[in-house]
């Protein structure tokens, strides 16, 4: 059904773009096969009005013209629907090339690559050889391994509520969550979904790697307002443990935990293959420390140590 609708919209767009005079509903119905099969006049009128609104939402400028005979006509003038010439210098072209290479997986990879090819075909300059030589060894990548990424990305774009099974780090089994998704953010190499949790009536952040099973799209619209994107990013930053409010003291096995060492406020050797680090302590640090398994031992504060132990026991329980 989705393919049939896309074909119908394409045929309607081609008719409106290809005419030099306004076309009436009657003429459009006789030109598009799907409209001929609509059956009743009411069915056709509803279908046509929906299609016209969909095309306008996609950006097509459709004019409504009243004819001398009183019949309403429609057309999409080419000059009103043509983008201005795109001019980019070498540095701007290089920046777009880097941006297109960022997405190596998921649905955006093909879209980014296709857009770049179209721009080059339209005359966008190629990146300079010197740029490629210096940056080919270190290219930015955004890996996406979670199956939940694509359906959640589409749900965020379309503002559609979703449900999924989610296992908290401190829980042995997943539970179903009803969420109005706002945006996806990447922190420390992990993807997070920020949104409104309907069951809890508050904003929540979910790590995609803890979503199990299929993400299911729900009908209906959002019940809570969507905050500004910068506010959402701050929320993800806080929940991901990037905002520190105090410090923690941990023991770290020598030669392990380099991400922790990079954030350490101070460190010293303890001997016997262990080091002591003082690291920033914010929301989510317990979940991060659990990922290092037996290479990390929390010394203080006591509440962080207890949280890490609870999470490890939950993982061991299965």
Explain what this protein looks like in three dimensions.
- The protein is α+β, with helices and mostly antiparallel strands and 318 residues long.
- 40% of the residues lie in helices and 25% in strands.
- It is built from 12 helices and 12 strands.
- A hairpin with an 8-residue loop joins strand 4 (162-166) and strand 5.
- Helix 1 (2-18) crosses helix 4 and helix 5 packs antiparallel against helix 6 (108-121).
Write the topology of this structure.
Blueprint: H1 2-18, E1 23-24, H2 25-31, H3 33-36, H4 41-57, E2 63-66, E3 72-75, H5 90-102, H6 108-121, H7 129-135, H8 149-158, E4 162-166, E5 175-187, E6 190-197, E7 202-207, E8 211-217, H9 229-239, E9 244-253, H10 258-263, E10 266-271, E11 274-282, H11 285-290, E12 296-300, H12 302-317
Antiparallel strand pairs: 1-3, 2-3, 4-5, 4-8, 5-6, 6-7, 9-11, 9-12, 10-11
Helix pairs in contact: 1-4, 5-6
């Amino acid at each position: 059904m989705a393919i049939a609708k896309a074909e119908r919209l394409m045929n309607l767009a081609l008719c409106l773009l290809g005419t030099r005079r306004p076309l009436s509903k009657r003429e459009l119905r006789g030109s598009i096969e799907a409209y001929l099969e609509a059956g009743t006049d009411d069915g056709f009128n509803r279908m046509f009005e929906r299609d016209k609104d969909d095309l306008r939402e996609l950006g097509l400028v459709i004019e409504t013209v009243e004819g001398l005979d009183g019949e309403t006509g429609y057309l999409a003038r080419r000059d009103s629907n043509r983008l201005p010439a795109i001019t980019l210098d070498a540095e701007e072209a290089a920046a777009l090339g880097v941006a297109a290479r960022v997405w190596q997986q998921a649905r955006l990879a093909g879209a980014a690559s296709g857009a770049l090819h179209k721009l080059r075909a339209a005359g966008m300059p190629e990146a300079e050889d010197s740029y490629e030589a210096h940056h080919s060894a270190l290219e930015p990548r955004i890996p996406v391994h979670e199956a939940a990424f694509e359906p959640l990305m589409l749900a965020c774009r379309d503002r559609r509520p979703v449900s999924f099974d989610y296992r908290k780090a401190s829980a042995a089994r997943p539970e179903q969550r009803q969420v109005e998704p706002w945006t996806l953010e990447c922190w420390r190499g992990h993807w997070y979904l920020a949104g409104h949790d309907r069951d809890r009536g508050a904003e929540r952040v979910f790590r995609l790697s803890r979503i199990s099973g299929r993400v299911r799209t729900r009908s209906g619209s959002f019940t809570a307002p969507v905050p500004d994107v910068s506010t959402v990013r701050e929320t993800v930053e806080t929940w991901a443990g990037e905002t520190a409010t105090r410090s923690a003291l941990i023991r770290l096995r020598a030669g392990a935990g380099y991400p922790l060492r990079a954030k350490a406020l101070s460190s010293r050797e303890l001997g016997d293959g262990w080091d002591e680090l003082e690291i920033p302590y914010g929301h989510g640090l317990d979940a991060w420390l659990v990922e290092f398994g037996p290479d990390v031992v929390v010394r203080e504060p006591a509440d962080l140590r207890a949280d890490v132990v609870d999470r490890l026991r939950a993982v061991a329980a299965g």
